[in-house]
Write a structure and sequence with these properties.
about 110 residues, alpha+beta, Trna Endonuclease, Chain: A, domain 1, five-stranded mixed beta sheet, 2 helices, about 40% strand, globular
Length: about 110
């Protein structure tokens, strides 16, 4: 997927979760070894969100255990860098055929 298509999917995902009451904290947070598409806050819980889009098959199939581990490691490093001590979860949003779906608290 091109970066332009990824940006469009992330824009749609941000609109979607904002409507659900999430506050967007940061987008495209990058550290060596990992990136987090969206970091958002809701009900005092920090959500690290991976966005995937596609149309030929369900885009969440692109979240491999290795990719998820990179997101987890990057989330932990974000928490350390910002000196945060709060609850957090790893979520995913699929953007497919103009519709978004939030999957909360994904695990390996």
């Amino acid at each position: 997927m091109s970066r332009a298509k990824g940006n469009i999917a992330e824009d749609e995902a941000c609109k979607y979760i904002s409507a659900l009451g999430f506050q967007i904290i940061e987008r495209n947070f990058t550290l060596r070894g990992g990136e987090i598409d969206i970091i958002a806050l809701k009900d005092e819980i920090l959500h690290f969100i991976e966005v995937k889009s596609g149309s030929s098959y369900h885009p969440l199939y692109n979240i491999t255990p290795q990719k998820l581990q990179h997101v987890i490691n990057t989330a932990q490093r974000f928490m350390q860098k910002k000196n945060l001590d709060m609850a957090f979860v790893i979520d995913a949003i699929s953007v497919r055929d103009g519709r978004c779906e939030l999957i909360e608290n994904i695990t390996i």
